[in-house]
């Protein structure tokens, strides 16, 4: 691969991506600094060789970038011949109901969305690593933003993490038309307070728009969401305890 020592982004990101328990990470660095090699190594390290189903999912904005990333996976994975790769891209047509045995899937938003929902080739509950490559391009590209969000919501709603006591919504979920996505909101806050345990969900509201979304969510569920006075430390401690 031509690596003599880790680049700055690799040196910073790899300890977090390889940590136990796994951690979420947002990384930004210039082209050619080794970001792809870093997240590819993280995916390869998380694969359970005894399991023959998709475990790692990488979303790329273009067909060409998906193929390039796939080449890196194949090159770095030469020492792990039992790890297989599948491409969820245009032209790769599979029969409905067909089972995918490859542990790593890389693809573009539209095809990946079909594989997760319509065709059910990918079971979101079994995904260990989700990579959103070139996230800024995804958000800026017409159509990709909605599909990427629908894939982060479909995967999220399938995650069942034990002992979650607090859920923090930095952004309230909305659909492609900008209306409150009440079902996704319920899935999110439902990660906490399970099986009779007490849980806390905090929503960040920073504009009239987000306040309007919050009010409409309240109306939908006919449930008042308490306002938290961030200047009242005693109140914050009372709620969190």
From TrEMBL:
InterPro entries: DEAD/DEAH_box_helicase_dom, Helicase_ATP-bd, Helicase_C-like, P-loop_NTPase
Pfam annotation, one family: Helicase_C
Enzyme class: hydrolase
Assigned keywords, A-Z: ATP-binding, Helicase, Hydrolase, Nucleotide-binding
GO terms assigned for molecular function: ATP binding; hydrolase activity; nucleic acid binding; RNA helicase activity
Domain Helicase ATP-binding per the UniProt entry, residue ranges: 16-157
Database matches in PANTHER family: ATP-DEPENDENT RNA HELICASE DBP3 (PTHR47958)
Protein name: RNA helicase
Organism name: Scyliorhinus torazame (Cloudy catshark)
